[in-house]
Amino acid sequence: MTGPPSGGPAPRQTVRAEGGFAYGVIGADLHVFGDGQPVYILENWRAAPPADDAWLRELPSRMLSARHEIVPFTGRTADLAALHAWRLTDRRLAARWLHGPGGQGKTRLAARFARESLADGWKVVNAVHGPGSVLPPPGSQDLTTDGAVGLLLVVDYADQWPLPHLTWLFSNALLHRPGLPTRLLLIGRTADMWPAVRATLADLQAATAGHPLPPLPADAPDDPDDPDDPHPRECQRPDAAAGPGERARMFRAARDSFAARHGLPTAAGIASPVPLHGPDFGLTLTVHMAALVAVDAHRAGRRPPRDAAGLTTYLLDREQRQWARRWSRHAAESAPDTESGATPPDAMNRIVFTAALTGPVAPGAGAAALTSSGPGGPRHPERALADHAAHYPPADPARPTELEPLTPDRLAEDFVALTLPGHFADYPARDWAPSVLRALLPHAPGTPTAPWTPRALTLVAAAADRWPHVRTGYLDPLLREAPWLAVAAGGGALGTIAALADLDVEVLDAVVAHLPNRDDADLDPAAAVLAVRLADHLLATTDDPAKRAAVHRNLGWSLAGAGRYTESLAAAERAVAGYEALARADPDRYEHDLAIALNNLSLRYDYERRTDEAVTAMERAVGIGRRRLTDPVGRHAADLALSLSNYGNLLKHAGRWLESLQAGSEALVRYHRLAAADPAAHQGALAVALLNHGSDLSAALRTEAAIDATRQAVAMLRRLAADRPEAHEGTLAIGLENLASMLTEQGQTAEQVLTWHLRSGGAPAPELLPPQGWREEALAAIEQAVEIDRRRARANPAALEAGLAGALQTSAFVRRACGMEAAALTDEREAAALTGRLGAAAEPHRAEHRETYGPQATEVLYDVELALYRCLAAADLATHGPQLALLLDLHRPTAADGERLGSLHDLTALREAAEVNARLAALDPVVYEPDYAYALIRLADALWWEGKHAESVPATERAAEVTARLAAVDPEEYGPQLAMVRRNLVRRLAATGRRREARALGRIHRRTPT
User: Fold this and answer.
1) How confident is the model over 460-476, as pLDDT tens digits?
2) Are 361 and 410 within one domain?
3) Which CA distances in Å does 594 have to 536, 577, 600, 623?
4) What's this model's pTM, rounded to 2 decimal places?
């Protein structure tokens, strides 16, 4: 749903209700899953409303929450300036990946930038991921950009979005207003996903840049006089936190803000309880924690902790005191001899632990989550949820949630880590915590994962990065027992796990074994990180050249899937170098591996537009495949067929079209043999080979053959897509679009020829008449193609909307040829809107090429068509057998055919033509026996003239038998032909020494009227 561009008519709002959801947008698209749930929600950015001071003071987590903005933005001036400079660049569309560890200040920086952009006249929009989030109640957002200087879209936790969902977001019409500067600020903890996102954005012609948020620069260390007093000299100054460093300035700003909320008249005498120059205080959050602890301890008259870990335990103790205080108050207010309805502190501890793992859930789901946490939960879940909400209400009043987690995220991670037994910090662990953790992450074989698995596993992995006991005591054992859980949790959780420096390599290896053996946009970025980790380990622990080469080959493949193409190319080159050395020493063992490595390398070269190097590498792979092939359907045959198919595509990229046709034709023949031997394994590859071959023949203006190949491919793909639509529907749509285009071109051309003949007063030959029903077939094909492309583009628009645009353009062409002008104009407008938004992404990788070829290419093209119809006739003899027989009859021998160089006939082809006609005659004697007789006569004559007399005689005898049957039914038509065949038979019998048979047949022939 898209509103009009700036300056157009008044915006209209479209509200669509699906599956119980009803969201409206003005000026943007709304993307939903099949069940109607939005993939994401776009909202106008707004600051959090002011919070009551007394409410904030109750819990330190409220004070630290970035959304309340208790502490004014301090420091990060260089980063803020860089964001403003990026916003003012002259590119229409630009994206920036802002990344840093939790607590680094990303959210605060983004909020400040959003606020200042809004003040500068920019439209600022926030994107909220749908799956796993509690969305606002159905409603609408006015996202029109009229009068805006530009558009800024902020995406927090972008590294937790599956890549297909981000690409869907990137396709939203809101981001593609002509002439409107648009900036995408993507925020994540790591940059692992950025290469794949950057590659997607490159297709949209977006300028891209990474923005790592560095630690706060360290202040100069203090030199206290008293080891029991961290800052005695500072305490004598008017401001006890005086200092020129950025951390000191940030501490003072936070301290003063917290003190003001606590009603303290001055904070100048409150010093940091711990030195700020250590590595723990490179985070904005830890500096704020130090300030909050200092103020709280000063106000309460307590001695503050002396290290960073102590800050966390101090704050968590404060949280627990508030739980106890509320419970005590309710207990005091209850009547004597009655049980207080309030949730006691230990039970609240368990609920907060559960909420940290599950994250916020929709109303009504909280009780189920508490029940899922195993035995020992609250007896009255609804009352427990209400008590929990009193401490931790929904973060956004517009989103009614239950089990709102402790914030900030880093404090929640530390809380979970400290609640789990195994640490030595001064904080009480809980015996029930391990069982709750395992209950919330069900991992028995066959057990479905819980909806909060991605968040829970991500949080545990993040905690394990700072708390070794979480890794060794909980995460490692969990993943050893159920490594598939890391994959089921999705790319975000998998990426957090992969980034753990100390995670056992055996665990990583077990997780990798559960990755799907296919491209997966969500998992590929994290899978590449895992591949790098494992590769580093394996390369450091082995000197075996074969193992090292295999590591580089696998690494190159994984890196390519994550969009890390430069690294992938380097790994592929190292793999080829390793296998080359191995193959020189032991070709029987390693040439096959070398061919696979060369295949991968050639694809990387092709991506870099290093076409000549790509072709050379693939030529070597094909050469090795030919040498190693001993069985046409053996274990090397599929590799050779794939190499030939890739080789054909690369030759097209190099402009070597005729050679490309030959390579594609050979690939088709080989896939046909493989599919005949094992249809389940190779039917899909054969269909793709047919589809490619049809496109190549169409470019060579062999329209009839192109249509036949494409029809067969479409028929096969329809069957395959019925069983596995996710694997084959995209290819089916391409085939349907190609078929519709070819039929329309053929039909239009034939009708133009017919018109010319009629205007000239004559009539065309029957074979030149337009094919019957071409309009109906073309329309049905393109309508199905557009329907498939539209449905798939809704699921992954950034990658697939270009395909939809192409299908719509073809639909306009077909509809106009069918006289449907209004429908054609509608398709053209939609296609133009898509291509205008996508820019270069809507253009094909390389332009289509239509080649007429010269006379020297006729023989090659003929052989290509012959190979095609052999495959087609094997699948459908009645439809394609006659064309195959005709091509075989017309074939002339070449040196490659193995016949004598002076031969006039291709005897192998004529034998095959006779065999094909025999099978056709068995299907329908009335229609095909005349052709069978002719084929036998042609074969017998050719054998005689080529000196193969002994073989010619039985062929002549069979020709006489078939012709005699035809003459018995229609003597006028076939009598003369029978007489000729019998005369030839008499001569050939006599010439081969069978004179008695010749004389007898001659007497019969003279008595038989002709």
Assistant:
1) 999 999 999 999 999 99
2) yes
3) 22, 9, 10, 11
4) 0.74
